[in-house]
Amino acid sequence: MKKLNLTIEDVLKKLEKKEISMNEAKKEIGILTIEKVGNAMLDIHRKYRRGVPEVVFGEGKETEDIAKIVKTLVKRNGYALITRMNNYSKIKSGLKGFDLEYNKKAKALLVKKKNYVFPKNGKIGIITAGTTDIPVAEEAKIAAETMGCEVFKSYDAGISGLHRVFEPIKGMMEKNVSAIIVVAGMEGALPSIVSSLVDVPVIGVPTSVGYGIGEKGAGALTTMLQTCSPGLAVVNIDNGFGAGVFAGLVARRR
Question: Across residues 39-50, what is the average pLDDT?
Fold first, then answer.
């Protein structure tokens, strides 16, 4: 499939000027939807449907392949985000000419065109139960920021010292956040508690932190799914990215 420099806006303008027919416009938009880069079939206009471009899951991919994919996404969208990026030192030389922001804790790499600025799009909060939950929270933070959100965070406010969480919650509500992401491992009770205290959606993120039967996040996930506090949505274990995107969509609608 050949690469095109047209965008959906270009096609719609051609249709408006009656330079092409409706059927031709449908065909061109269909072609624009997918771009083949090596073995990857990139959904390059996902941002028009979902409000966020396709993100590259770096784990298990060769750095050369990642670099090719990222260059295409940056060209189309202005930026690209790579999650689970374990070999930043190897890939950065292949991405010269772009602004690179690597978050070591989150293992996430943001690649942008020079001077690219994300549009402003609301506010969200992020709270973690413990310090071991911070890497997942940082992934959520990056995802939300790429959607234009201003992020307010408070880490290490779990239920073993529950009084720690009240001040961050108060501050976030005073800042009029649209949603709060709560990241917790072990028994995963904190998201339900936060949800019972606020009037905005709460996104619970179970993490693979714990002992015995609850190891690898199963215990935290079960607790969050069994919540009796309405207004709590739950993403998969360690899925900070998914939580950040969901919060960003809530902020955008609000």
Answer: 69
Name 100's bridge partners. 111
Look at phi and psi of residue 156 and say left if phi exceeds 0, alpha if psi is from -120 to 50, else beta: left
pLDDT digits (tens, 9 = 90+) for 180-198: 999 999 999 999 999 999 9
Q: What are the chain's domains?
A: 8-112 (no CATH), 123-253 (3.40.50.1970)
pTM of the model: 0.83
How many whole angstroms separate alpha carbon 161 and alpha carbon 209? 18
How far apart, in whole angstroms, are the C-alpha atoms of residue 181 and residue 172?
11
CA distance 81 to 101: 10
Residue with tokens 């940056």, as numbered in its chain? 74
What is the rounded CA–CA span in Å between residue 18 and residue 33? Answer: 22
Total Cβ atoms within 10 A of residue 69:
22
- What angle do the packed helices 8-16 and 22-33 form, to 10 degrees? 170
